[in-house]
Design a protein that fits this description.
mainly alpha, 83% helix, 224 residues, transmembrane
């Protein structure tokens, strides 16, 4: 039940592999941040949230998928050539993009109803991304299997998720407060870009924590 060993192991992995994670994910994150910065500078507030979500749904599966592929290889004792990670990610991008859209939609619907349904969906779908990438599941199968896999582990997943996600939400809220003005002057574009890049890169740690928890529960299930 104690989430601290999971977070400690994830932090160890993240720091030990920071160079490889940076080379794999940072260029894609910077591309997303550039698109978001241009959007902030030129788009009207009426359309900005929609376009921003589309950019995220296009780019998030790329760098998150690449990170999961790398973590899965390292957990098996392999060190994949970094040049091979992106082509593998592109193969799963269509399925990952569909999964991202579905999970975001369910989370938003749950959050619209009440906060608790949104948190419930967040926890029950915590392993969907890893199931899609590691076990080649379809988006719907990954969501179904994540619901099943978290049975009996809800509080454990909730604690790990909240300990990592809540600080990220606070960080993102502060950054969006700086970057989310109705009009962003061109002189401020670099600051917006750096904030977007920094928050997205730090958010990768939540994926590392989730993957570590996924592997632990999968191992316990296999030997249970």
């Amino acid at each position: 039940m104690n989430p601290l060993p999971i977070i400690r192991d994830a932090f160890y992995f993240f720091t030990r592999n920071l160079g490889a994670i940076t080379r794999i994910c940072l260029p894609l994150i910077m591309l997303e941040s550039l698109a978001q910065t241009v959007l902030f500078c030129v788009s009207t507030s009426d359309h900005s949230p929609i376009y921003s979500m589309l950019i995220t749904m296009a780019m998030y599966p790329l760098y998150t998928g690449a990170l999961i592929i790398y973590m899965a290889a390292r957990s098996s004792g392999d060190t994949p050539p970094l040049a091979n990670v992106l082509p593998l990610t592109l193969r799963i991008w269509p399925r990952f993009a569909v999964l991202t859209a579905l999970t975001n939609l369910l989370f938003l619907l749950g959050a619209k109803l009440m906060l608790l349904p949104g948190i419930y969906v967040l926890v029950k779908l915590a392993f969907a991304e890893y199931l899609l990438v590691v076990r080649s599941a379809s988006p719907l199968a990954a969501m179904r299997d994540s619901f099943n896999m978290t049975n009996g582990h809800f509080l454990r997943v909730l604690l790990c998720t909240m300990l990592v996600v809540v600080p990220l939400w606070v960080l993102q809220a502060v950054s969006f407060g700086v970057a989310g003005e109705e009009e962003v002057q061109m002189s401020e574009a670099l600051v917006v870009f750096l904030i977007q890049t920094g928050t997205s890169f730090v958010a990768l740690f939540s994926s590392v924590v989730g993957f570590r928890l996924f592997m632990v529960i999968a191992d316990e299930t296999a030997h249970g």
